[in-house]
Automatic annotation (TrEMBL):
The keyword Oxidoreductase applies. The keyword Oxidoreductase applies. This is 3-oxoacyl-[acyl-carrier-protein] reductase. It comes from the Eukaryota. Residues 1-20 are annotated as: Disordered. The lineage of its organism: Eukaryota, Fungi, Dikarya, Basidiomycota, Agaricomycotina. One of its GO terms (molecular function) is oxidoreductase activity.
C-alpha cells in the first residue's frame, strides 16, 4: 500500500479520545442518513401501524420517518402522550407529502384502542401490512423499591401491548385486498424487546421480565400463526440513546465520562434510534420474508459474549 493511499490500515488501537471522536463522527453519519439518501421503495404500498412514537429522540419516531422515506402508503402512529404527535405528522408530510399520516392518542396496552386502530386501517385502506409495537416504559428502581403495582404496570405496558398487537394485527393482516395488489394473507409484526430480555444485567427485574415475555411472544406467535405468512419477530436493542435512557447519558457526560458510554460491547460505543429503525425496516420489508419467530439483538455485539474484561480471555 503506497504512502499516499487513502486506504489506511491502523496498526494500533485508538486512544480513548480518538475512539470517542470516531464514535461522534459515525453517529452523525447515521443520523444524517435520510438527508443524504434518495427515497426508497422498500415499503411501497404498505399500510403500517407504529406505537410509541412520542419521544423526540425515540425509536418509534425514527422508524416512522424511515418508513415514510421508504414509500409507506399510510402510517397510523400512536402514543399515549399526545404533545409530539402533531410535530411528527407535520415533519413527515413536509418531507413526504405522498405518505398519509393518521395520529392516534391512545394507550398501546388498551384492548379496545388496538382493536380500533386495526379496524380503522382495514376500513380506510383495505389492508394492514406492518405493525411495529414499540411502546414501552422503564422503571429504574431496584428490587426492594419495586412494588407489585409497579411490576404489573411495566408488564401491562411493555408486554400486554405486544400481545394485543399480535392478536389484532395478525387478524387484520390475514385480510386480502386484490385492488391494491394484496392477493394473499401476509404481514409483519415487529415487537420491541431488549437485550434485557435475553440475559440479566441490562435492566431492572420488572423491565427484564417484561421484555423476556415479549421475546417469548414473538416465538410462540410464529407457531400460532403458522401457514398464514404473518411473521412475528422481536428486536432486542442494546444501549440506545433515547429519552428513556437520557439519565444514563446525561449522568455520564456530566461526570466527564461520556466517551465511555457503551464501552462494554465490541464496537465500544452506544447506539442511536436510527440504527434500530433500520432493523425494523428490514423486518417490515419483504426482504425479510423468511425471517420469523426470532429475537434479534441490535447491541453492538454486547450479547455475543459472556462477561469478560476487555483485552483478557478466560
Amino acid at each position: 500500500m503506497s504512502k499516499g493511499s487513502p486506504y489506511v490500515l491502523t496498526g494500533s488501537k485508538p486512544t480513548p479520545e480518538e475512539h470517542h471522536q470516531r464514535t461522534l463522527t459515525r453517529i452523525e453519519q447515521i443520523q444524517s442518513h435520510l438527508k443524504n439518501s434518495p427515497r426508497g421503495q422498500r415499503l411501497k404500498g404498505k399500510v403500517c401501524i407504529i406505537t410509541g412514537v412520542g419521544s423526540l429522540h425515540g425509536i418509534g419516531r425514527a422508524s416512522a420517518l424511515l418508513f415514510a422515506h421508504e414509500g409507506a402508503q399510510h402510517l397510523y402512529i400512536m402514543d399515549f402522550a399526545p404533545q409530539n404527535l402533531p410535530d411528527l405528522k407535520s415533519t413527515i408530510q413536509q418531507s413526504y407529502p405522498d405518505v398519509k399520516v393518521t395520529t392516534i392518542q391512545a394507550d398501546a396496552a388498551d384492548d379496545a384502542a388496538i382493536a380500533a386502530i386495526c379496524k380503522q386501517a382495514i376500513e380506510e385502506e383495505g389492508q394492514l401490512d406492518i405493525f411495529f409495537a414499540n411502546a414501552g416504559i422503564l422503571n429504574t428502581k431496584g428490587l426492594r423499591d419495586t412494588t407489585s403495582e409497579v411490576f404489573l404496570e411495566t408488564l401491562r405496558v411493555n408486554t400486554l401491548s405486544c400481545f394485543l398487537a399480535v392478536k389484532y394485527g395478525s387478524e387484520a393482516m390475514m385480510r386480502v385486498n386484490p385492488s391494491n395488489g394484496k392477493t394473499l394473507s401476509k404481514g409483519s409484526i415487529i415487537l420491541t424487546a431488549s437485550i434485557a430480555g435475553l440475559r440479566s444485567g441490562a435492566g431492572t427485574i420488572d423491565y427484564s421480565a417484561s421484555k423476556a415475555a415479549v421475546n417469548s411472544i414473538a416465538k410462540t406467535s410464529a407457531y400460532q400463526l403458522q401457514k398464514t405468512d404473518v411473521r412475528v419477530n422481536s428486536i432486542c436493542p442494546g444501549l440506545i440513546e433515547t429519552n428513556m435512557t437520557k439519565n444514563v447519558f446525561d449522568g455520564a457526560r456530566q461526570r466527564g465520562s461520556g466517551g465511555k458510554i457503551g464501552q462494554l460491547n465490541p464496537m465500544g460505543r452506544y447506539g442511536v434510534a436510527q440504527e434500530i429503525a433500520q432493523m425494523a425496516l428490514f423486518l417490515a420489508s419483504d426482504e425479510s420474508s423468511y425471517v420469523n419467530g426470532q429475537n434479534i439483538a441490535v447491541d453492538g455485539g454486547l450479547s455475543a459474549s459472556h462477561p469478560v474484561m476487555p483485552g483478557h480471555w478466560a
